[in-house]
TrEMBL record:
Domain (NodB homology) ranges: 56-159
InterPro entries in UniProt: Glyco_hydro/deAcase_b/a-brl, NODB_dom
Gene3D superfamilies in the record: Glycoside hydrolase/deacetylase (3.20.20.370)
Record-level Gene Ontology MF annotations: hydrolase activity, acting on carbon-nitrogen (but not peptide) bonds
Coiled-coil parts of chain: none
Gene Ontology biological process terms, A to Z: carbohydrate metabolic process
Name by which UniProt lists this protein: NodB homology domain-containing protein
Source organism superkingdom: Eukaryota
């Protein structure tokens, strides 16, 4: 029986948890766009070079160790691809999904609509060339700065999903207009842009990366504290909110990492342990209950199963 206080440890219902690991390869671009500051120095920019030359190879090797290289989603700014073509090519060779992440990590609110569209179209071209003609289907806005025009541009260009929001919109004492899910079987549902959640609690950079002139930058948090937070989220979701009979799909567990911080020796070791624990949990579960998937694979499965078909789930 289920625990009356919410624990479902003894619940024998079918479960499903989709683990979606992702990496934002910001490199130098992080210091050119949303992270630009006139006080940035060559030492600051060198962290972006470390991201490419050291962080990317370490993460690719780690994902390869667990056989999940082709189940990770990498979001690449155009600047990172063109500045570090060898590292970008290595990411593509790993079989990973490659999504867009701006060109120079530009914030949407700092651009005109024309500039935003120009950046998007240029980045599509760059990624298509990197992938030998394959179009990208996923998008993560730099610093999660997404607006209505961004969504419209993504839909216009046939994107499957974006990965930015953490919760519904709201503002102080004033009701907000929150979009409703489109009705099953409608063209809006079939062609709509899916939102794969991301937040500051599902990433490494805020607690483990250091930007000297960014107010919310930390960088000196103990890795065991961050690992425990990530694991507590996974454990709670697995025990309480991944039952297939409740919504026909189960739950998703997304993570966002950056080579600049995740590639540091003390951090990548923790991530190694963390992935190892996820793999152990997957092996202990029933076959197919816990899987590693790219965000593209998960989004397509969601659309095919949950939605949006006339016959339901």
């Amino acid at each position: 029986m289920a625990d009356p206080h919410g624990s479902c440890r003894d619940d024998k219902r079918s479960k499903r948890l989709h683990i979606c690991l992702s990496v934002d390869f910001d490199a130098i671009s992080g210091y050119l766009g949303t992270g630009h500051d006139p006080r940035n120095t060559l030492a600051d920019y060198s962290a972006g070079i470390f991201s490419a030359r050291v962080g990317v190879p370490r993460l690719l090797k780690l994902f390869g160790k667990y056989g999940i290289g082709n189940k990770v989603s990498w979001f690449l700014p155009g600047h990172s691809i063109e500045t570090f073509p060898e590292e970008a090519a290595a990411i593509a060779r790993s079989g990973a999904e490659i999504g867009l992440h701006g060109y120079s990590h530009e914030g949407a609110y700092a651009m005109t609509l024309e500039q935003e569209e120009e950046v998007l179209m240029r980045c599509i071209e760059i990624v298509v060339a990197l992938q030998g003609g394959k179009l990208p289907v996923g998008y993560r806005a730099p610093l999660y700065q997404i607006r209505e025009t961004t969504v419209q541009l993504l839909q216009k260009n046939g994107f499957l999903y974006d990965s930015n929001y953490s919760q519904r919109a709201s503002s102080w004492m004033v009701p907000s207009s929150v979009p409703k899910e489109p009705a099953a079987g409608t063209d809006e549902a079939k062609n709509g842009l899916l939102e794969i959640p991301s937040s500051w609690y599902t990433e490494d950079m805020t607690p483990l990366g250091f930007y000297p002139y960014t107010p919310n930058s930390q960088g000196y948090v103990a890795v065991d504290v961050v690992e425990r937070m990530w694991w507590d989220r996974f454990d709670w979701l697995w025990e309480n909110e991944c039952f297939v009979d409740e919504d026909g799909f189960g739950s998703i567990y997304p993570m966002v990492w950056h080579p600049e911080s995740a590639g540091r020796a003390h951090v990548v070791g923790m991530i190694d342990r963390f992935i190892g624990k996820l793999v152990k949990k997957m092996n202990e579960a029933e076959p197919g209950e816990i899987t590693f998937e790219t965000m593209e694979t998960m989004a397509k499965a969601f659309k095919a199963k949950k939605c949006y078909n006339h016959d339901g789930c």
